[in-house]
Amino acid sequence: MENLDLFVLRTLLDWRRAGKATLLATVIRTWGSSPRPVGSIMALCEGGAVVGSVSGGCIEDDLIHRYRDALQDGPPQKTRYGVSADEAHRFGLPCGGTLELLLEFNPDTATLADLVTRLGEGRMVERSTEIDTGRVVLADIAQPEALREHGGWLHNAFGPEYRLLMIGAGQLTEYLATMALFSGFSVTVCDPREEYRGAWQVPGVTLLHDMPDDVVRAFRADRRTAIVALTHDPKLDDLALLEALGTDAFYIGAIGSRRNQALRQARLIEHFEQTEESLAHLRGPIGIYIGSKTPAEIAVSVMAEVLAVKNGVPLPRDLAVGPAKEKLDVSANDAVSCFVREDV
Question: pTM for the full model?
């Protein structure tokens, strides 16, 4: 599954190219609790087909009821849901929740195609809509911007797909790739070992056979990229991680035990002129501690950490695999000591 916003915009473009009447709805303001954040979008096509989401479903149902057979040209309109407690309950909004939408009718096909093309090329774009007329202006931007309304214009930033590059094509990678795909990531797997690539079974993933450090260098990782080394082979993982540390990737990590991570750090410092400071961005052991043992559970642990970092959620130190296991080791040693003292 691709980035949800990009999927909505591509589907909307397909509808417009087919000559169908459409509506683009954007969440522009919320009060209290709301099911979807500001900037969320959905598209509606004549006949009632919908992609994307602005709520838990009830508001989409109301928009379908109101517009499926009555879509026409005209300037954008604002509409608000959940003003009263009764209406909030009717539309499935949380207690006290209110949201406001901007509805754009039949967005210009050429401008929409330009937006989709730019996003497909990995660019970040601000889409500005003149509310009185519906005129749209696109501008490339360097970093994400919060949705804002200013001077009669609504400005909404769209980014390219988040990307996950994984080194190694083993079973754990298959589980992690599957989770990343349905989380909206574009997934690339690199493994020069033919025996691993030959057993790969996850569709929708780009599978490469070049050496990992070359792949990382060519990947041009940015702030929407995560890089994870999963081979347990220093010849493959270490050089790739070194290249990754020179990029803006928001997440860089490697699988392995605490001992293996300590040995890797020592190797990189001794042989590759790294320092503890330069390795501070390297995560390992990766994942959050959930007592995982199987490849599927480990993948859940790793994906949860990647998403937390992506979403800017600070994780307590005790949730990290390394500190959590150290704490368990201390508890186990204390329990053994108590047992010995009582036995004596």
Answer: 0.70
